[in-house]
Amino acid sequence: MIHVDNITFSYDKETVLDELSFTELEPVITGLWGRNGSGKTTLMKLLAGYEEPEHGKIEIQGKRPYNNAEAVQNVCYMQEEHPFSSIWNVHDALRFGKYFNPNWDQEMSERLLKTFRLDRKKKITKLSTGMKSALQFIIGICSNAEITILDEPVNGLDAGMRKKMYKVLRESHEENPRLILLTSHHIGEIQSIFEKIIVIKDGNIVFHELMDETREKGIWLSGNKDKLEEKISAEKILEHETMGSTMKVMLDAHYSKEWKEFAHSNGLSIEKAELQDYLLNMTEEEEEMSI
Ligand SMILES: Nc1ncnc2c1ncn2[C@@H]1O[C@H](COP(=O)(O)OP(=O)(O)OP(=O)(O)O)[C@@H](O)[C@H]1O
Fold it and tell me: Can you give the pTM of this predicted structure?
């Protein structure tokens, strides 16, 4: 489906993507996660054929997407602030969705307008941030495109609307499995719908793996500082706190039976780190991580 081979991309002289590679051949919901400015939107633009890599190669269903209508006919990319015409209303935007997407699901678009309480006649410039996100999401999900790319689809949506969106995403994907690549800063709640995750840092991929794998990563160990330091000297420490003679460290390790037994036998306490904290630490600048 998607092959990205060693691509580099810069704006002016600033390198934003640096020899980045990944391949995704399965029709899975994949989260693209990274800090602000890490290059997520730039990568999505390249995948959708809006920009061309300086070096390296992108192939979507075996074809290069840049300036290639045939290659992107089965790609639907909804940007965070999608540039709709300023004179359009909601109805016009849906007609645009239908026109450009051969697998468009009209019945679902009608239904979702009601779910997200969108008025067809309302001008897009008059929509709130959340309502505009909902409209973009409706177009993205109803496109049924083999590769659907959604940049921050939950931006501005309240908790109730976000919950509805996750349900629609899950059900639609179950009915019609396709590659849905999406970004969100609400990683704690949205991760439950991801089957895979790509984590990007400074324009490169930190890891691309099954979400079930990522969910097991990151452990907190705490106990006597001297004992703990001695026991974990060979481990990758992501975060640490010291309170008197007690120390607490987050390790880049799995919350495994082995680690639980290790903690037990050394009089240490162990707990699973929150996913968001683990990812934040994995994308932290190096000098901030060392003890
Ligand atoms: N059109 C542009 N011209 C110049 N620099 C740009 C442009 N678009 C993005 N950048 C820069 O490229 C880098 C990556 O931006 P990008 O939008 O891809 O990041 P992002 O991961 O999507 O960030 P965010 O989470 O904040 O949306 C940033 O340093 C940004 O300032």
Answer: 0.93
Mutate to test the pocket of ligand 1, among 8, 18, 20, 38 (most ligand atoms within 8 A of CB): 38
203 lines ligand 1 (CB under 6 A): no
- According to CATH, the topology of domain 217-283 is Alpha-Beta Plaits (3.30.70)
Structure tokens at 67: 């300036």
Spans of all domains in the chain: 2-213, 217-283
Q: What pLDDT sits at residue 227?
A: 85
Spell out the CATH class of 2-213. Answer: alpha beta
Q: Whose CA is nearest to atom 17 of ligand 1?
A: 41
CA of 37 relative to ligand 1 center, distance in Å: 5
pLDDT digits (tens, 9 = 90+) for 6-48: 999 999 989 999 999 999 999 999 999 999 999 999 999 999 9
The residue behind tokens 């609400």 is: 186
Rounded to an integer, the average pLDDT of 51-78 is 94
Residue with the smallest CA separation from ligand 1 atom 9 is 42
Got the DSSP string for 222-258?
EEEHHHHHHHTTTS-EEEEEEETTEEEEEEEEE--HH
* Separation of CA 189 and ligand 1 centre (Å): 24
| Cα of 244 from ligand 1 centre, angstroms | 42
Here the ipTM equals: 0.98
- Whether pLDDT at 72 is above 70: yes
- Region 162-167: what's the mean pLDDT? 96
